[in-house]
Amino acid sequence: MQTKVRTERMLIGGEWVYSESTFDVCDPQDNQVLAKVPAATEAHMLDAISKAKLAFEAHGTWPTHDRIRVLQNVAVYLETHLERFAKTIASEGSKTIREARGEVRRAIQTIQISAEEARRLSGETIQFDQHPGSENRVGYSYRFPIGVIGAITPFNDPLNLVAHKVGPAIAAGNAIVVKPASITPLSALLLAEAFQEAGLPKGMLSVVTGSGAEIGDALITHPDVKMISFTGGLDAGESIANRIGIKKMNMELGSNSPVIVLEDADLHVAVPACVSGAFSAVGQNCIGVQRIYVQELVYEAFLSSFVEQASQLIVGDKRDEYTDMGPMIHEREAKRVESWVAEAILDGAELIHGGKRYGAFYEPTILTNVPVTSKIVNEEIFGPVVIIERVRDVQEAVEKSNQVNYGLQAGIFTGSLEAAYYAIQKLDVGGVMVNDSSDYRIDFMPFGGVKGSGLGREGVRDSIEAMTEPKVVCFQLKGLA
Q: Which listed site, 103, 169, 201, 348, has its alpha carbon 20 to 30 Å from 49?
């Protein structure tokens, strides 16, 4: 029996609205239509921006305690409805139900941290009398919200990556317009519902669903949008940067993350961490492990153990509590990964494990001896494929790690402080995880990369700083009553 497909609404200026045109959101596992979602027009986006500006101006002195209250209420709402959010994430995206629950828990933390950081938003006193002739001046700086934030989010973390933009924006006192990934918009709409239920002032949040080609330019180029926060691919990020004009922007553009395993590493720690880092979320993870460089003495032992543990992963129904890997986000993405692997094998790479596709499902795949010119070495695979290569020493490992146009995070497994600090200093990345894979992050820490991995930093505190500006205040004491 065909389940009745629900029709969703989008949130514009505090009102839930339909659109004459819709698009289908489907479960990538079986292509079942989950919902019909509004396909917004440029007029919808312009309306959302206009109402966001009006809301921001009306709440220019929005008290900190009110912002904290709203965010705390959102966190409680998420916790109360955790299973509903998790089932939505698992239905519209690639994550297993266990991974989806983990994402909801992280989103709760992101919102809680946003509430905590709202009360810590402060400036500093300035010693004006350090300059001769300014002995009678005192002052300070404080941070103020910049206005309307435009946010564009990807499919792979459809709840928490939206929370990472909305939470800090509200904590800082900004209004925000979110354009979620068209393939996974339902989680963002649920989060908007949570903010509505939490008492967010009308118009401070809009979630506008639809095609980037239709509504993207209106968001990124509008003069009333003072900052764009974008998470997505490098090509899209470069395109936005070329059109955005003079305004603030934060961009996280993915990676091709390396992990180094030295001969003094504890393989009982390194192997499972790297297996998880390579294949969790079906490899659709910006800091997922893509390249592993293993020192010669432990290469065979590492590879053997890695293959054994990867072969035990259960690929199947993402709703099953025992499944480790579900489908990729779409069959065309699985076909793309399949073609990249085939191309690498034609180049001379050796397929050690996996390499088979079944519809949108792609097996956990391990390659070795991949030529450095192969696409799969230099680009972001964004799928369940990992390259494992041997190296002589940490110097060679770092050199190979840096030979790509990405630099988000890296990992190194070693018992040597000297080797760890060498990697910390020489790896051209935004974060180095020692005795963890590249796939480690907490939602408070600064998060971002260098080179093609993006501009600026996320993480709640860093996002709040990016979404505010400092204002300097100076009092000339002479003449004051």
A: 103
